[in-house]
Amino acid sequence: MTFLKNEKKIILSLVDAPKSYVDGEIAEKISVFFKRKVLIDFISIPLEKFLNPIRDQYNSTEILKYFIFNHPIENEDKNCLIVRKDLFIPILTFVFGEAHLNGNYCIVSTHRLCERFYKRVPDTKIFRKRLLKEIVHELGHTFGLTHCINDLCVMHNSFTIEDTDRKKEYFCEECFSELDDLL
Ligand SMILES: [Zn+2]
Ligand SMILES: [Zn+2]
Question: Which residues are catalytic?
Fold first, then answer.
């Protein structure tokens, strides 16, 4: 895929994660939803710095801060970090992801998207579906969308994996038209 200079992009930054996570369909759908080209990048972040040893989880806010400091934004690109570690923010037991509302950065964890986490047989299809939903959700925030009460809408807040599985990978009619105005 070629990019024009100054063209606004969505960058999916894989942190120690394989390209296969976001290959093909996921990148393509994200590009269609947000009307931007999608670039897949591989980056390295010293995640151990952000480990809370008591919780055995990683502080997503601090990871984002570190990333922003070291990767200043260009062209108003939207950047989504994809990490395999379990993430938290201090007030919650865990988060699937975190985003800067109306900003340029978000982060998604794959840790709780795999069936293995729930002591079930891993299923690539289920995993990729969940990952797509979580990426679309967090990117939606960066474009200015807030949580939606419609539990089938991708902008519905997920507290459990069942919430993620219930909702669709796309926007409800209202969020769709709101996004359309924001794009
Ligand atoms: Zn959210
Ligand atoms: Zn909605």
Answer: 138
Q: State yes or no: pLDDT of 5 exceeds 80.
A: no
Q: Which fold has domain 9-146?
A: Collagenase (Catalytic Domain) (3.40.390)
Query: Chain-centre distance of CA 17, in angstroms?
Result: 13
- Mean pLDDT throughout 127-139? 97
Residues measured by CB to lie within 5 Å of ligand 2, the ion:
148, 150, 153, 155, 172, 175
Q: What are phi and psi of 46, to 5 degrees?
A: -75, 80
Which ligand places an atom closest to the C-alpha of 170?
2
CB atoms under 10 Å from CB of 22, counted, come to 22
pLDDT at 19: 85
Q: Is the pLDDT of residue 49 over 90?
A: yes
Residue 130 CA, ligand 1 centroid: distance in Å: 14
Tokens of 122: 């891993």
The alpha carbon of 4 and the centre of ligand 1 are apart by a number of angstroms equal to: 31
